[in-house]
Please model this.
Amino acid sequence: MANPKQGNETSITEFILLGFWTHRDLQILLFLLFLVLYMATMAGNILIIALVVYDQHLHTPMYFFLGNLSCLETCYTSTILPRMLASLLTEDRTISFNGCLTQLYFFGSLVATECLLLSVMSYDRYVAICNPMHYTTHMSGKAWLQLAGGSWIGGFIGNSITTLSISQLTFCGPNRIDHFFCDLIPLIKLSCNNPQLMEMLAFTLCLIFSLVPFLLTLMSYICIIVTILRIPSSTGRQKAFSTCSSHLIVVIIYYGTLLIVYMFPTTSILSEFNKVISVIYTVLTPLVNPLIYSLRNKEVKEALRKACRKFVVEKC
Model:
């Protein structure tokens, strides 16, 4: 916030999220669309969590991390969509300074956590395919908790530095954020302070929590692909690749959209395009993740069938 001792500067107490400026009728359609997507996302991810907890056959490192990912996705989409749905319904686009910081903190923390968790999941697949004889040793129950817990703790602690730094900035000029949620870059641009130090800090944290996990994930999959190509039988190669194909698709979608949004320059021409791409990784990616894992995974489909059969028997 602005220092109250600063001369004629007026401290901003709220921001206006411009979001998607459309006709009233279109806003109602957008509200209904995003409401259906939100409900489907919550239902799909909660179902994955329930299956992982319920089915003993899914009590393995791979599905433990999948359950964590689904839990993360429910939190991830809930930091964005409820506020956006309220704006579309009431046309009230204002958000308080503290509310904006809170959304920024949880959103940024969950983004960092997802990057770390995806790299952990790729490491799990690397050990399973490239070093299967030592899989049980490397991925013991204690290791599951350490890797998953480290991802959550690292993401939230790392982003607390960014949020604390943002809270010390002075906002005395325009208060319109050209986005549908409080994102880091649009918020820095509204600050009256010299943005270079804040941009350097944000860049450093992005390197640590986005680029480094991405490179680790990339290295894991290079080793996995090399190992799979060395398998003599086509059946063996197909079986090995099927164990990591779902995760690879999720990684490509997630990092692909992140790179488009944050690596390209944010000009007025690209701002609307960036909003659309942001919808993909904030709304659609949490929705398609459970679909990808359930439709391409025999164990998850079998667990779902058993759960449905048990539910039908109990009802009868």
User: Anything to note?
Assistant: The CA atoms of residues 261 and 273 lie 9 Å apart. Residues 1-10 have pLDDT under 50 and may be disordered.
